[in-house]
Design brief:
Length: 150
């Protein structure tokens, strides 16, 4: 399954559109995935909780694994697919503001993002944290089978 097959992936929608979609549902744990507006090629996991939208950067390693940008000192958890990442963060105690509960499904195809040239390839493994994004906190001890590549 590719990213384009995920109904919760909305492509290059704006932060404002994302917040409107999540607020419309109005339930804690409502989420969607969109393209980052600030770092081309990076994705954002956006989660609604108590009238606030928390945005987490989803980074992809050079080997193709996905991870959420974590706080300094927190071990990255790598996921082979975006589906595995979502499944893990649907469980409570994984370091997000709240567990993922209600995916906001897009209507139609995701909005396309700009295709970058090969010589524009950014290094996602050294992305700095910023005030716009929330870092994943340490998780509560959980089943070790969900830690791939550790």
């Amino acid at each position: 399954m590719s990213l384009w097959d995920l109904k919760v992936y909305h492509g290059s929608i704006s932060k404002q559109t994302c917040e409107q979609l999540l607020s419309k549902k109005g339930k804690d744990g409502t989420f969607l995935i969109r393209d980052s507006e600030t770092i081309q090629g990076t994705l954002c996991l956006c989660v609604y909780k108590q009238k606030v939208v928390y945005t987490y950067r989803i980074l992809q390693s050079h080997s193709g694994y996905y991870t959420l940008q974590a706080s300094a000192g927190v071990q990255d958890i790598l996921f082979k697919t975006m589906g595995e990442l979502i499944k893990t963060y649907k469980r409570s105690g994984q370091g997000l503001s709240t567990q993922l509960r209600y995916g906001v499904k897009r209507k139609g195809q995701p909005q396309h993002r700009h295709v970058q040239d090969e010589d524009e390839t950014p290094n996602y493994e050294d992305v700095e944290a910023s005030a716009v994004y929330v870092a994943v906190l340490p998780s509560v001890p959980h089943h070790p089978a969900s830690m791939i590549g550790m």
